[in-house]
Design a protein that fits this description.
It holds the Pfam family Oxidored_molyb. This protein is α+β, with helices and mostly antiparallel strands and 250 residues long. Helices cover 18% and strands 26% of the residues.
Length: 250
Amino acid sequence: MSFRLLKKKFDRRTFLKALSLVGAAFIPGKAAAIGDYRNDKNIPENYVQNRDTPGFHIRSANPFLGVNIDEWGLSVSGLVEKPVGLGYEDLFGFKTTSQISRLKCVECWSAKAEWEGFRMEELLKEVNPKPEAKYVKFDSADSYYEVFPLEELLRPRVLFVLRMNGAPLSREHGYPLRLIVPFKYGYKNIKYITRIQFTDSPGRNYWSNYGPYSVDGTIQPGIDHPLDYGKKPLPINGGEVFHPFDKRPS
């Protein structure tokens, strides 16, 4: 793994690693301090919040101002041999790849984009999970959380995303780091990731605790309304969504 900004990486990484080693939960705590607008209709205009924008709708469970990269760090800990803290620049030291995949929302619409980032294998090489680590829990800067079996995150086309459509992720779409799991509904594709924990138990996710959605979130057979097809209904088979006008991965 090579890094572009070694000095900055060392300073920030050492700091975050020290915190992760003592089990500090400073990042979720900081997120919890964000104003809670979940049941407030008077959300400030400058907050990241649900918006039906052309081409790709924006969904965010807990409206907030977005991530200040000067205060952001990624803690990777739990059942691993080498817990680490990573800065934004560190993430670009991983081997990156790109793919075009469709995000299918549980609200029935879908949209596709070109996503660029790194695979789970890159992170595993960095932290070396212990044999009993079977699940992975994610926390985000807006107090959202998700959980996956580790084996699901190792499937092809699961991607930790840094760039979208040739540009850095926007704050609305998950800056600085989000997950794309194309065979899961959109709510499983957690944004603004701040902490990753390897565990031996599955746990629950945000929407199974606060809403009607399952922990699993696998896309089911049914009808999709792709935004790039005028929202005209099209049948889907379940799993990753491909429409007749989508290019299939080689």
